[in-house]
UniProtKB/TrEMBL annotation:
Residues 15-396 form the Major facilitator superfamily (MFS) profile domain. One of its GO terms (cellular component) is plasma membrane. InterPro entries: MFS, MFS_dom, MFS_trans_sf. It comes from Candidatus Cryptobacteroides avistercoris. This is MFS transporter. One of its GO terms (molecular function) is transmembrane transporter activity.
């Protein structure tokens, strides 16, 4: 069944590279939220609970709209969707740089979150269209851009914003202009694709579900549990790792951003591996190894020194991040005719869980201390063992 799809079109590599660059720029701009936390905390004298609430607002905005965007654009494709996403992100960054109080920060991160909720399902859908059937490779190319952008963002902010103040986030407007140029190129290709294939494109690639509806629902629930186990640990590092390093080891804010970059760079590298390896050995096995395989490093990290902590965070980020391309592609194979909706649903669910986890962890840190929380969340990757119960869809589709 996949052989037929592979023969339908060649891989549109320039488009995949452009999508990766667009994802890189989007997620680089999105990192202004978490990277601004130490600055915002000092500027507005916030508690960790309030920091968690900022993440909650951002992640909810970035999650609730994603499946809706995917569902709507599955039915009525919108050729300017990526440019619309960039507009929301740009407005949010301007607001983040200038907001005088916590309410303004909420508005800023909500607007940035809406931009994210548009670009992820739409760009993921276009990635599938441009893949020429090599969906694991294409999805990894797309996602590594986002993860690398998320990794570079804190490093750039440490150099350009931390020494000078929050208003210097306005320099990121320049990157928004570059993002517009890249998304305009993608939109031209997408416009041409829609003009060429029109309404008949769906029928040409229609594929039945590999499982019956009851089994499909059960597997979706299982995938959601796996995403929760992944994001409990991932969000603890994304949102509070700099504070952990500052409190436990006494490093500076700038150096903590550098160590955050090391972790996020590892997540980018792991993402690039997850898709192609899943093409070869099966999505199920990548999901199992990437989540449960993080546990030895997560469990060791609270008990080692600074240098070993950086190494443990790198290993955890690399192994854990390889799961998401496999999870997303597994879900798309589960519901093969709803690419936009599925992408939006699982990106959105991941963002939503991230927001809830960040808010809960913020409260726990205020109540029990950051080291206690890191010892607690270190156990969460072990939940990934339940991936053994996932059916092997690639065997069913052969």
């Amino acid at each position: 069944m996949y052989d037929r799809e592979k023969n339908m079109a060649a891989v549109a590599m320039p488009v995949l590279i452009a999508l990766s660059i667009a994802h890189f720029l989007n997620d680089l701009l999105q990192t202004t939220v978490t990277s601004a936390y130490p600055i915002i905390k000092d500027d507005l004298d916030l508690s960790f609970t309030q920091i968690g609430s900022i993440t909650f607002v951002y992640q909810i905005a970035a999650s609730v709209f994603q499946p809706l965007v995917g569902m709507v654009f599955d039915r009525r494709p919108f050729k300017g969707s990526l440019e619309l996403a960039t507009t929301f992100t740009l407005l949010g960054i301007i607001c983040l740089a200038l907001a005088p109080n916590l309410a303004g920060i909420y508005l800023a991160v909500f607007t940035i979150g809406v931009g994210s909720s548009i670009i992820h399902p739409e760009a993921s859908r276009i990635t599938s269209l441009a893949s020429g059937g090599k969906r694991g490779l294409a999805q990894s190319i797309f996602q590594v851009g986002g993860n690398f952008g998320g990794a570079v963002g804190p490093l750039i902010i440490a150099i350009t914003v931390v020494p000078y103040g929050r208003s210097h986030f306005l320099w990121f407007v320049v990157l928004s202009a570059v993002s517009y140029a890249v998304t305009a190129f993608i939109s031209r290709w997408y416009n041409s694709y829609l003009d060429t294939h029109g309404r008949n494109s769906r029928a040409a690639v229609f594929r039945p579900r590999p499982l019956r509806m009851g089994a499909t629902v059960a597997v979706v629930v299982l995938i959601c549990v796996l995403i929760i186990s992944k994001y409990i640990y991932l969000e603890s590092l994304k949102n509070y790792y700099t504070f952990y390093l500052i409190e436990k080891f006494g490093v500076s804010v700038q150096l903590s951003q550098v160590f955050l970059f090391v972790f996020l760079a590892a997540t980018a590298a792991g993402t690039l591996v997850g898709g192609p390896v899943g093409d070869r050995i099966g999505r199920k096995y990548v999901i199992l190894l990437s989540i449960a395989g993080t546990a030895p490093f997560s469990l060791a990290m609270p008990h080692v020194g600074l240098a070993a902590t950086v190494v443990m965070s790198f290993c955890s980020g690399f192994i854990l991040s390889s799961a998401f391309p496999a999870i997303l592609l597994y879900a798309q194979e589960l519901l093969p005719n709803k690419l936009g909706m599925v992408s939006g649903l699982f990106f959105g669910f991941a963002f939503g869980i991230g927001g809830i986890v960040a808010a809960v962890l913020g409260n726990l840190i205020d109540a029990h201390g950051i080291e206690f929380v890191y010892r607690m969340v270190a156990w969460s990757p072990l939940i990934g063992i339940i991936a053994v119960f996932l059916p092997d869809l690639q065997k069913k589709l052969r």
